[in-house]
Each structure stands twice: as structure tokens, then as C-alpha cells.
Amino acid sequence: MQVLMLSGVRGVQLFYIASAITLCMSWHARRKEEAFPVSNYFLRRFWRIAPLFYVAIISYLAMDGLGPRHWAPNGIRSWFLPITVLLAHGWHPETINGIVPGGWSIAVEFTFYLFLPIALNKIANTKQSLIFLCICLGVYAANAVYMPRIWMPIYPGEQRYLVEGFTFFNIFSQLPVFAIGITVYFAIIEKRHLAFVACVLVPIVAVLVGLSSMGNGFSLHKTARSHLVVSALLGGFAVFLSRQGKFHAVLVNTATVFLGKISYGLYLTHFAVIRLLKATDLPVFSESTDAGCVCFFVTTLCIAAVLAIIAKSVIEDPFIDVGRRIIANRESGRT
Known about the structure:
- The protein is 74% helix and 0% strand.
- It has 16 helices and no strands.
- The chain has helices at 2-6, 11-30, 37-64, 80-85, 103-122, 126-151, 161-169, 171-189, 196-213, 220-225, 227-243, 248-251, 254-261, 263-279, 283-286, 290-331.
């Protein structure tokens, strides 16, 4: 059970795949209907992600102050805050998670937002998306080899975990996951289902095995559990699900749709909830048993869900509406 729960970290990659698919759908549906499709796209993305993230910045700074913490062992320096506010914190080992726990995924997602319109102007079918995936895998391999060489000399031995984390968390490491999502989108609309998993898995495994042979900390076991292999399997499942409507009732239901709607707030708040529950020192939360693990998970989910519902109604939805009104006004020619 505990191993299953730990596998939940791959939920970020599942979100990236879903995000890529839905953004491709939205981009192709709106670009011919709107007068300002590119700027409207960026407005939607900003008002969707930034307001709640800014509240998270304030909240975690209030909780943790400016002193040292795990992902910022030298403390929060003066330039950390503006970089994080600009959603550019994903470019430095100490800022990527320095202020907001788990903030790396927000930085990576926002960076993906920035280049997606450019990518979709060049990618128009499954074949081109697979070529794009191979390019992204090359970027991933270069990141795995050269990023540690760049940053390791800067940090003392006890802080080199920052570089290891940054090498995994940054956009270059996660870019193939988004490419998988884009490939899923084209595979679905072009009905090129059967070859999808093989065409995606083969280059991914080839890159990982190549890195392993170079002594970059990869092994057969790690390769099998790699976030890229898992992402390819998740992408294949998405393609399969698009053909097998009978499974929708099992996976797409009231509960999962509800969790999807509050997922952003869940993600940003659950780190704080976990920390607070651990601080209680209650035996039920400290037991390293399956029962204790399930109890901790359910309690965290319930508390974080309440906070996420509040965040959605008070912050997310109102600011999303602000973005919609701005776009509507621009499209109607009133600005």
C-alpha cells in the first residue's frame, strides 16, 4: 500500500499529459474563431494559474519565513521572490522549490505554456509530434548529462541534492512528457492508435538505456520506473481509453470530475496539510504501516479538499472570470 501511495508522485506527469491534450484541443478549437488567439491564450493561462500561486507564495512565506529550508538551505535571498512571482523560478536549483513546496511543477507548466503556440504552429500531425518527441528526448539526455556538470561545482557536498533534484525537476527533464501528451492528442484525432505505444516507448527506452550505459545513475530497475516510461504508458492508456467508451463510467464519474476541478488547490495545499499532520505527533500518523498510511492519506485528502474548495470559490473561479471578461471585451472590440 505504501509503495502504491508513493507512486502518486507520477500524478504530476499525468497532469502534464492531460494538460497538453486539453490545451491542444483548446488551441485548435479557438484559433480560427478568435481575433486574438495567441494573446487570449496567454491571458487564460495566466488568470488560471497565477492568482492561486501568488496566494501560495504569501502563505508559505508566512509559515516558513525567510530562513533556510530543505530546498533553499541558504535561505530565501532577495531575488527569490520576484523570480517566483514572475513564474520563472524553474531556472535555478534553489528557487525551483525554494518558496512554494512543489513549486517546480508550476514553473514547468508555465514554461510549457510559453512555447506551446510556437510548437503547434510547427506540429500538425502524429508523425511530426513523434519527431518533436525525439527532439525532446535529445534535450532530456543532454540535461541529464550536462546539468549536473554545470551546477555541481557550485554547491558543497551536503547540498548537491539540490542539483540532483533540479536535474529532474526542470523543464528539460519534463519536456518529453508534454511531447507525449501532444502525440496522444494527434494519435486520437487521427485514429493512429495501434502504433502509438511502440512508437513512443522505443525511443524513450533507447535514450534511458543509452544514459545507463554512460554511467549516469540509471539502471534497468530505474529505467522501468522512469517518469518517461510511466508517462508513455499513461499516454497509451489515454489513447486506449479514447477507444473504449465502456471504461469511462469507471474512471470518469462524479468523484473523479470533482477532484479534477479542485486538483490545483489540492496540489498547492496538501504540502502544508502533510506538514501540519506530521507536527501533531499523533501515533496513527506516525505508524509505518499500511493502516497508518491509509489513515494519513484519507485525512490529508479530506482537509486539503476542504481548503481546495475554498480556494476554488474564493480565488480560482473569480480570477478565471476576470480573464474571461478581459478576453470577451477584447474580442468585442471595446478595448
